[in-house]
Amino acid sequence: MSESPFALSLRGLPSFDENHVRLAVERLRLARDESVRAAENLLDHLKLTPEKSLAGLGGVAEGFSRLPYENVSKVISRAGSESPDQWLRPPFAVAMDHITSGLGGTCFSLTETLRTVVQRLGFEAAPLLADMPHGDDLHCALMVQHRGHAWLLDPGYLICQPLRLDQDPLQFLTPRGMARFVREGSRLALMLPGKERPAYWLKPGTVSESRFVLAWLGSFYIPSNDQLLVTQVQDGEQHYLHNRALRRMDAQGKRNEKLNQDLERRVEEVFGIRAELVHQARTLLNLRRPKKKI
Q1: Which helix (H) or strand (E) holds 91?
Q2: What pTM was computed for the model?
Protein backbone atom coordinates (compact mmCIF):
# COMPACT_ATOMS: atom_id res chain seq x y z
CA MET A 1 0.00 0.00 0.00
CA SER A 2 1.36 3.44 -0.94
CA GLU A 3 2.27 5.90 1.78
CA SER A 4 -0.27 8.61 2.57
CA PRO A 5 0.89 12.03 1.30
CA PHE A 6 0.24 13.44 4.77
CA ALA A 7 2.92 11.17 6.22
CA LEU A 8 5.54 12.46 3.81
CA SER A 9 8.00 14.99 5.18
CA LEU A 10 10.02 17.39 3.09
CA ARG A 11 13.74 16.83 3.46
CA GLY A 12 15.04 18.94 6.36
CA LEU A 13 11.73 20.76 6.80
CA PRO A 14 8.87 20.44 9.29
CA SER A 15 6.05 18.05 8.47
CA PHE A 16 2.38 19.02 8.67
CA ASP A 17 -0.45 16.94 10.00
CA GLU A 18 -3.41 15.82 7.92
CA ASN A 19 -5.68 18.45 9.46
CA HIS A 20 -3.52 21.39 8.31
CA VAL A 21 -3.41 20.10 4.74
CA ARG A 22 -7.12 19.33 4.55
CA LEU A 23 -8.07 22.73 5.96
CA ALA A 24 -5.80 24.49 3.47
CA VAL A 25 -7.21 22.48 0.53
CA GLU A 26 -10.75 23.29 1.69
CA ARG A 27 -9.99 27.01 2.00
CA LEU A 28 -8.68 27.07 -1.59
CA ARG A 29 -11.78 25.24 -2.83
CA LEU A 30 -14.14 27.55 -1.00
CA ALA A 31 -12.37 30.53 -2.56
CA ARG A 32 -12.57 29.12 -6.11
CA ASP A 33 -15.55 31.16 -7.34
CA GLU A 34 -14.08 34.34 -5.91
CA SER A 35 -10.72 33.44 -7.46
CA VAL A 36 -12.28 33.01 -10.93
CA ARG A 37 -13.84 36.48 -10.68
CA ALA A 38 -10.51 37.89 -9.52
CA ALA A 39 -8.78 36.19 -12.47
CA GLU A 40 -11.12 38.09 -14.79
CA ASN A 41 -10.28 41.34 -12.98
CA LEU A 42 -6.57 40.56 -13.33
CA LEU A 43 -6.93 39.95 -17.07
CA ASP A 44 -8.67 43.33 -17.36
CA HIS A 45 -5.99 45.03 -15.25
CA LEU A 46 -3.21 43.58 -17.41
CA LYS A 47 -5.20 44.49 -20.56
CA LEU A 48 -5.18 40.89 -21.80
CA THR A 49 -7.77 39.46 -24.18
CA PRO A 50 -8.78 35.87 -23.29
CA GLU A 51 -8.37 33.48 -26.22
CA LYS A 52 -8.24 29.68 -26.16
CA SER A 53 -5.31 29.17 -28.51
CA LEU A 54 -1.60 28.61 -28.12
CA ALA A 55 -0.97 32.25 -29.00
CA GLY A 56 -3.60 33.30 -26.46
CA LEU A 57 -1.99 31.12 -23.80
CA GLY A 58 1.42 32.66 -24.54
CA GLY A 59 0.00 36.17 -24.44
CA VAL A 60 -1.63 35.58 -21.06
CA ALA A 61 1.54 33.99 -19.62
CA GLU A 62 3.65 36.88 -20.93
CA GLY A 63 1.27 39.39 -19.38
CA PHE A 64 1.18 37.43 -16.14
CA SER A 65 4.97 37.81 -15.87
CA ARG A 66 4.33 41.43 -14.86
CA LEU A 67 3.48 40.04 -11.42
CA PRO A 68 6.82 40.05 -9.59
CA TYR A 69 8.26 37.01 -7.93
CA GLU A 70 8.55 38.26 -4.34
CA ASN A 71 8.49 36.89 -0.81
CA VAL A 72 7.26 40.14 0.78
CA SER A 73 3.71 38.77 0.74
CA LYS A 74 4.87 35.36 2.00
CA VAL A 75 6.68 36.83 5.01
CA ILE A 76 3.66 38.97 5.91
CA SER A 77 1.19 36.11 5.38
CA ARG A 78 3.09 33.74 7.66
CA ALA A 79 3.34 36.35 10.40
CA GLY A 80 -0.40 36.99 10.21
CA SER A 81 -1.51 33.62 11.60
CA GLU A 82 -0.19 30.82 13.78
CA SER A 83 -2.20 28.26 11.79
CA PRO A 84 -0.38 27.05 8.65
CA ASP A 85 -3.61 26.44 6.73
CA GLN A 86 -4.17 30.22 6.73
CA TRP A 87 -0.76 31.08 5.28
CA LEU A 88 -1.65 30.24 1.68
CA ARG A 89 -2.83 33.16 -0.46
CA PRO A 90 -5.56 31.97 -2.82
CA PRO A 91 -5.66 33.33 -6.38
CA PHE A 92 -8.20 36.03 -5.56
CA ALA A 93 -5.82 37.42 -2.92
CA VAL A 94 -2.84 37.30 -5.31
CA ALA A 95 -4.84 39.04 -8.04
CA MET A 96 -6.26 41.79 -5.82
CA ASP A 97 -2.96 42.33 -3.99
CA HIS A 98 -1.28 42.92 -7.34
CA ILE A 99 -3.96 45.31 -8.55
CA THR A 100 -3.95 47.34 -5.31
CA SER A 101 -0.38 46.99 -4.02
CA GLY A 102 1.87 45.71 -6.81
CA LEU A 103 2.54 42.40 -5.08
CA GLY A 104 3.00 39.06 -6.85
CA GLY A 105 4.01 35.94 -4.98
CA THR A 106 6.44 33.02 -4.91
CA CYS A 107 6.26 29.96 -7.15
CA PHE A 108 3.33 28.18 -5.48
CA SER A 109 0.96 31.14 -5.22
CA LEU A 110 1.91 32.35 -8.71
CA THR A 111 1.41 28.89 -10.21
CA GLU A 112 -1.96 28.43 -8.50
CA THR A 113 -3.08 31.86 -9.73
CA LEU A 114 -1.85 31.25 -13.27
CA ARG A 115 -3.69 27.92 -13.24
CA THR A 116 -6.91 29.71 -12.34
CA VAL A 117 -6.36 32.22 -15.15
CA VAL A 118 -5.64 29.63 -17.88
CA GLN A 119 -8.52 27.44 -16.71
CA ARG A 120 -10.73 30.50 -17.07
CA LEU A 121 -9.64 30.52 -20.73
CA GLY A 122 -10.82 26.92 -21.08
CA PHE A 123 -7.51 25.03 -20.83
CA GLU A 124 -6.87 21.97 -18.69
CA ALA A 125 -4.01 22.74 -16.31
CA ALA A 126 -2.41 21.06 -13.29
CA PRO A 127 0.70 21.62 -11.15
CA LEU A 128 4.02 19.80 -11.37
CA LEU A 129 6.55 19.60 -8.53
CA ALA A 130 10.31 20.01 -8.75
CA ASP A 131 13.24 19.14 -6.51
CA MET A 132 15.86 21.79 -5.76
CA PRO A 133 19.48 21.39 -4.60
CA HIS A 134 18.48 22.08 -0.98
CA GLY A 135 15.33 19.94 -0.80
CA ASP A 136 12.62 17.95 -2.54
CA ASP A 137 9.33 19.40 -3.80
CA LEU A 138 10.39 22.98 -3.12
CA HIS A 139 9.42 24.36 -6.51
CA CYS A 140 6.46 23.98 -8.84
CA ALA A 141 5.37 24.75 -12.38
CA LEU A 142 2.23 24.41 -14.48
CA MET A 143 1.42 21.84 -17.15
CA VAL A 144 -1.23 22.91 -19.66
CA GLN A 145 -2.91 20.52 -22.11
CA HIS A 146 -3.58 21.78 -25.64
CA ARG A 147 -4.38 19.77 -28.76
CA GLY A 148 -2.92 16.53 -27.51
CA HIS A 149 0.33 17.98 -26.17
CA ALA A 150 1.55 18.99 -22.71
CA TRP A 151 2.96 22.51 -22.42
CA LEU A 152 5.06 23.92 -19.58
CA LEU A 153 4.76 27.34 -17.94
CA ASP A 154 6.82 28.38 -14.91
CA PRO A 155 6.08 31.84 -13.49
CA GLY A 156 8.67 31.33 -10.74
CA TYR A 157 11.53 30.94 -13.24
CA LEU A 158 10.06 33.30 -15.83
CA ILE A 159 9.11 30.67 -18.42
CA CYS A 160 6.51 32.95 -19.95
CA GLN A 161 6.05 31.23 -23.32
CA PRO A 162 4.60 27.69 -23.45
CA LEU A 163 7.24 24.97 -23.88
CA ARG A 164 6.09 21.69 -25.43
CA LEU A 165 7.40 19.06 -23.06
CA ASP A 166 8.06 16.41 -25.71
CA GLN A 167 10.20 18.63 -27.93
CA ASP A 168 13.98 18.34 -28.21
CA PRO A 169 15.86 20.52 -27.52
CA LEU A 170 13.70 21.94 -24.74
CA GLN A 171 15.01 25.48 -24.32
CA PHE A 172 13.89 29.06 -23.89
CA LEU A 173 15.41 32.52 -24.04
CA THR A 174 16.02 34.50 -20.84
CA PRO A 175 17.42 38.04 -20.42
CA ARG A 176 20.79 36.41 -19.63
CA GLY A 177 20.81 34.03 -22.60
CA MET A 178 19.46 30.61 -23.53
CA ALA A 179 18.29 28.26 -20.76
CA ARG A 180 17.61 24.59 -21.41
CA PHE A 181 16.20 21.46 -19.85
CA VAL A 182 18.35 18.32 -19.81
CA ARG A 183 16.71 14.94 -19.38
CA GLU A 184 18.09 13.05 -16.36
CA GLY A 185 16.16 9.80 -16.16
CA SER A 186 12.52 10.65 -15.62
CA ARG A 187 13.27 14.22 -14.51
CA LEU A 188 14.07 17.40 -16.44
CA ALA A 189 17.01 19.41 -15.09
CA LEU A 190 16.82 23.16 -15.69
CA MET A 191 20.20 24.63 -16.66
CA LEU A 192 20.36 28.43 -16.51
CA PRO A 193 22.85 30.50 -18.52
CA GLY A 194 26.30 30.50 -16.95
CA LYS A 195 25.40 27.93 -14.28
CA GLU A 196 26.98 24.47 -14.00
CA ARG A 197 24.45 23.03 -11.55
CA PRO A 198 20.74 22.62 -12.28
CA ALA A 199 18.39 25.16 -10.73
CA TYR A 200 15.85 22.39 -10.23
CA TRP A 201 14.73 18.96 -11.41
CA LEU A 202 11.16 18.88 -12.72
CA LYS A 203 9.40 15.63 -11.87
CA PRO A 204 7.03 13.82 -14.25
CA GLY A 205 3.31 13.69 -13.63
CA THR A 206 0.89 16.14 -12.12
CA VAL A 207 0.10 15.90 -8.42
CA SER A 208 -3.03 15.88 -6.27
CA GLU A 209 -4.33 18.98 -4.53
CA SER A 210 -3.23 17.56 -1.17
CA ARG A 211 0.31 16.84 -2.36
CA PHE A 212 0.59 20.30 -3.91
CA VAL A 213 -0.66 21.99 -0.74
CA LEU A 214 1.72 19.95 1.42
CA ALA A 215 4.65 21.12 -0.68
CA TRP A 216 3.31 24.71 -0.63
CA LEU A 217 3.21 24.66 3.17
CA GLY A 218 6.75 23.28 3.29
CA SER A 219 7.98 26.13 1.10
CA PHE A 220 7.41 28.57 3.98
CA TYR A 221 10.40 27.04 5.78
CA ILE A 222 13.08 27.13 3.09
CA PRO A 223 16.17 29.24 3.97
CA SER A 224 15.49 31.85 1.27
CA ASN A 225 12.48 33.03 3.28
CA ASP A 226 14.90 34.59 5.75
CA GLN A 227 16.02 36.91 2.94
CA LEU A 228 14.21 39.73 1.15
CA LEU A 229 13.76 38.60 -2.46
CA VAL A 230 12.11 40.19 -5.49
CA THR A 231 12.68 39.55 -9.20
CA GLN A 232 10.96 40.62 -12.39
CA VAL A 233 11.67 40.94 -16.11
CA GLN A 234 11.17 44.43 -17.52
CA ASP A 235 11.84 45.32 -21.16
CA GLY A 236 14.13 42.32 -21.68
CA GLU A 237 16.13 42.99 -18.51
CA GLN A 238 15.90 40.95 -15.31
CA HIS A 239 15.80 42.96 -12.08
CA TYR A 240 16.76 41.00 -8.97
CA LEU A 241 16.73 42.17 -5.35
CA HIS A 242 18.48 40.20 -2.60
CA ASN A 243 18.20 42.02 0.72
CA ARG A 244 19.84 45.39 -0.07
CA ALA A 245 21.57 44.35 -3.30
CA LEU A 246 19.72 45.27 -6.51
CA ARG A 247 21.06 43.69 -9.70
CA ARG A 248 20.06 44.27 -13.31
CA MET A 249 20.99 41.50 -15.74
CA ASP A 250 20.83 41.05 -19.49
CA ALA A 251 22.91 39.42 -22.23
CA GLN A 252 25.52 42.20 -21.96
CA GLY A 253 26.23 41.64 -18.26
CA LYS A 254 25.27 42.73 -14.75
CA ARG A 255 24.88 46.10 -13.05
CA ASN A 256 24.74 46.32 -9.27
CA GLU A 257 23.26 48.90 -6.92
CA LYS A 258 23.51 48.90 -3.13
CA LEU A 259 20.32 50.12 -1.47
CA ASN A 260 20.69 51.86 1.87
CA GLN A 261 18.11 54.02 3.64
CA ASP A 262 16.15 54.28 0.40
CA LEU A 263 15.47 50.51 0.12
CA GLU A 264 11.67 50.66 0.40
CA ARG A 265 11.37 53.64 -1.93
CA ARG A 266 13.61 52.05 -4.58
CA VAL A 267 11.75 48.73 -4.43
CA GLU A 268 8.50 50.59 -5.06
CA GLU A 269 10.09 52.52 -7.93
CA VAL A 270 11.63 49.45 -9.59
CA PHE A 271 9.06 46.73 -8.89
CA GLY A 272 5.88 48.66 -8.07
CA ILE A 273 5.41 47.09 -4.62
CA ARG A 274 4.10 49.54 -2.04
CA ALA A 275 6.94 50.77 0.16
CA GLU A 276 5.04 50.25 3.43
CA LEU A 277 4.63 46.53 2.66
CA VAL A 278 8.34 46.18 1.91
CA HIS A 279 9.08 47.91 5.23
CA GLN A 280 6.69 45.56 7.07
CA ALA A 281 8.33 42.47 5.57
CA ARG A 282 11.85 43.79 6.28
CA THR A 283 10.90 44.45 9.92
CA LEU A 284 9.51 40.91 10.30
CA LEU A 285 12.59 39.39 8.69
CA ASN A 286 14.92 41.33 10.97
CA LEU A 287 13.11 39.85 13.99
CA ARG A 288 14.21 36.42 12.71
CA ARG A 289 17.78 37.55 12.01
CA PRO A 290 19.65 37.98 15.32
CA LYS A 291 22.87 39.15 13.67
CA LYS A 292 23.00 40.61 10.18
CA LYS A 293 19.97 42.83 9.67
CA ILE A 294 18.56 43.82 6.30
Answers
A1: helix 91-101
A2: 0.93
Local structure of 164: helix, strand or coil? strand
- Residue range 123-139, pLDDT digits in tens: 999 999 999 998 899 99
Q: What is the pLDDT of residues 37-71, one digit of tens each?
A: 888 999 999 998 878 899 999 999 999 999 999 99
Sign of the four-CA dihedral 110, 216, 169, 151: negative
Q: Mark out the alpha helices in 200-256 (DSSP H runs).
A: 209-218
DSSP for 56-77, please give it. HHHHHHHHHTTSPEESHHHHHH
Closest C-alpha among 30, 91, 82 to residue 64: 91
Q: From CA 80, how far away is CA 51, in angstroms rounded?
A: 37
- Cis peptide, bond prior to residue 169, ω within 30 of zero: yes
SS3 249: strand
